[in-house]
Design goal:
This protein is α+β, with helices and mostly antiparallel strands and 632 residues long. It contains 24 helices and ten strands. It has helices at 5-16, 18-33, 37-40, 43-55, 61-86, 100-113, 116-121, 131-137, 142-172, 176-223, 225-235, 241-265, 267-281, 286-296, 301-317, 321-346, 357-372, 381-400, 406-430, 438-458, 469-474, 498-507, 518-526, 604-609, and strands at residues 478-480, 487-489, 492-495, 511-512, 548-554, 557-565, 574-587, 591-599, 615-620, 624-629. It is found in: Cell membrane.
Length: 632
């Protein structure tokens, strides 16, 4: 169904005037960046909306990126010029003196972070409209400003366009897939909420007692020098930490190998893994895979490496060498752990991949330990919550793409958290001095959220879904219905040209439906129960929607034919299909559509439509109907 009404008018205008659309994007970004104008002008909201048009295929992404970057850069440049020209007198001019708190925040922000605040400020809403002007007012070198502002503007544009692009892409797709994705999102949201609650509870329980427990541990090490050698280096700054960490690392590695061996023979854990694989298998289709890829590349080695280097560069710049040593120690050791886990658990060396849940978990956890100390006590749990959510998202995507099984993911997250905590204890024992956590927070989160796009482009093959063989065999002759509400047997085998088959059915009065995705859910929400036309949802087989979807009226219902390729590896003239009966139905009181009633045992509506040559029919075992095309 094509857009109608004013939506169609907007689309038509944009498609007919692509150059003006670029200028429009430029003006939005420009106005959003001008001194103080950005406070009242919803430029970011407009850019997100335009990103939706990119996702719908109406706009070109690279064109929008260039125009948005240019608008942001020039808008900031004018603000910088105003500050550079009027200096402190700017604070007395209207309307600047109307916003004393905002100006004070901007000055404090610039004084704290220096020139790099121009880069950070581009991504921080409250201070974005004033930072360039304050940089000019406080005498920042023009060449340095131009370089930093240009880089920030280029990176900022896709950051604001991407949410709209994902939404637009979702709007373009939608059917049964939408409900599956909705269920997947719902499960993820529930898991995130549970993670948030658990982390907060654990943090509130542990933090008040941490000092006393560490003091008790230190006293214990003095009474038990032999056993205490394991922990004395962590809690006693007078003792070298490397020996304790090396011994603890060896113990953790031995435990990991033993745990992986136990998981390989435990029928209970094997069953859990199969339940997890079966759950995610039900949600595999071309539209759920796309957004999940971004989550997977959150923890790709390139994404983690760039985040490690970015934070390390900042620590070197601020001469925080003790922090740097522990940061790099976590990075190197956890990467080695991750590679060894893959070797032991997968019998493969994954040196550059998305399999390293251990590495991502360790870095995210230690990042939380570093930045939490800079917060007031009541807010210190938040870095751990953010890290926990990032870890959960990546672990969820790893399970979705079968990078690792459930038991391996859980084991990696658990041991990685313990390892980062041990190094965190050693670090805090030797460094009671707090430092600004905001630069590290911004640097880490920015790279972790943006670099996955680059990782995706460079390592597309790492997101290939290697579905478990046992699942593929089990699902070879069945398909899942709307909202995963049951399975229909693929009891029709077709040896014929699909185009010719479609034409023959069309000539016999059958109607062809485009296998829609997200659009059908919108139509189901929009349509009344007694509407003349209701959407017909797609089904999924082996993660793919139908190659051919046709229907014919049957009384007050529909007889529907759904056809898939018999094998994903060989696109030939061999197909599997199912014939189902549908009646008017309403799900959840809002989704009005042609609902599944039953698998059509009587195949006469189909055979009657194909009764004329060149088709032959055979009844195979297991009640499978074979339709063959006569070959010349």
């Amino acid at each position: 169904m094509e857009p109608t009404g004013w939506v169609k008018d907007v689309y038509d205008w944009i498609q007919a005037n692509p150059n003006w659309t670029g200028i429009l994007i430029f003006l939005f970004a420009f106005a959003e960046s001008i001194l103080l104008v950005g406070i009242i002008f919803p430029g970011a909201a407009f850019l997100v909306s335009l990103g939706a048009l990119i996702g719908l295929g109406v706009l070109d992404f690279y064109t929008a990126w260039i125009w948005a970057s240019l608008g942001g850069f020039l808008g900031d440049g004018i603000s910088f010029w105003i500050g550079h020209k009027y200096k402190r007198n700017l604070l007395k001019m209207w309307p600047m003196y109307k916003f004393p708190e905002l100006i004070e925040k901007g000055e404090h922000f610039f004084a704290k972070y220096g020139g790099i605040s121009v880069f950070i400020g581009r991504f921080v809403g409250p201070v974005r409209p004033v930072i360039p002007a304050i940089a000019g007012m406080m005498g920042m070198q023009i060449k340095r400003y131009v370089l930093i502002s240009l880089v920030a503007s280029v990176l900022w544009a896709p950051f604001y366009l991407l949410p709209g692009m994902l939404f637009g892409s979702a709007m373009e797709t939608m059917a049964k897939v939408a409900v599956k994705l909705s269920v997947l999102v719902l499960v993820l949201v529930v898991l995130i909420w549970v993670a948030y609650w658990v982390i907060n509870v654990i943090y509130k329980l542990l933090v008040p007692r941490t000092y006393h427990r560490l003091s008790g541990l230190l006293a214990w090490t003095q009474r038990h020098p032999t056993l205490g050698r394991l922990t004395s280096g962590l809690v006693d700054p007078r003792q070298p930490e490397k020996g304790s960490l090396a011994m603890l690392a060896m113990i953790l590695l031995i435990f990991l190998v033993a745990a992986i061996w136990f998981m390989a023979i435990s029928q209970t854990l094997i069953h859990w893994n199969q339940v997890s694989e079966s759950f995610f298998f039900a949600f595999h289709n071309p539209w759920t895979v796309l957004p999940m890829k971004w989550l997977l590349f959150l923890g790709h080695d390139l994404s983690v490496l760039v985040a490690v280097i970015a934070v390390a560069v900042w620590l070197i710049y601020r001469r925080l060498y003790l922090v740097l040593q522990h940061w790099l120690l976590v990075a190197v050791t956890s990467y080695v752990f991750a590679v060894l886990i893959c070797r032991v658990g997968h019998d493969q060396w994954h040196l550059v991949s998305s399999h390293h849940v251990f590495w991502f978990t360790s870095m995210a956890s230690f990042w939380a330990i570093l930045v939490a100390g800079a917060y007031p006590i009541k807010w210190r749990s938040w870095p751990y919550v953010v890290a926990g959510v990032l870890i959960l998202l990546y672990a969820f995507a790893s399970l979705f793409f079968y990078q690792m099984n459930l038991a391996m993911v859980m084991l990696s997250v658990l041991i990685a958290s313990i390892w980062s905590m041990l190094i965190g204890i050693a670090f805090r024992t030797r460094s009671r001095k707090q430092f600004l956590g905001l630069p590290i927070k911004i640097t880490y989160l920015t790279t972790v959220l943006l670099v996955p796009v680059l990782s995706w482009l460079l390592f597309t093959a790492d997101a290939t879904v290697s579905k478990p063989e046992w699942l593929i065999k089990r699902s070879a002759q069945t398909t899942t219905g709307w909202a995963n509400n049951g399975e229909q047997k693929l009891d029709i085998l077709i040896d014929a040209d699909l185009g010719l088959l479609q034409k023959s059915l069309h000539d016999a009065g059958w109607q062809t439906h485009e296998p829609r995705t997200w659009a059908n859910v919108y139509l189901a929400l929009k349509a009344e129960a007694d509407a003349e036309e209701l959407p017909l949802f797609s089904y999924v087989h082996r993660g793919e929607v139908e190659r051919l979807l046709m229907s014919v009226a049957d009384g007050d219902g529909l007889i529907v034919l759904r056809v898939w390729a018999d094998s994903a590896q060989q696109p030939n003239d061999r197909w599997r299909a199912t014939l189902t009966r549908h009646v008017r139905d309403t799900d959840l009181y809002v989704f009005n559509h042609w609902g599944y009633q039953a698998t059509q045992a009587d195949k006469s509506p189909l055979t009657a439509a194909l009764s004329s040559p060149p088709y032959l029919f055979n009844q195979l075992p297991d009640n499978i109907l074979q339709i063959r095309q006569k070959r010349k």
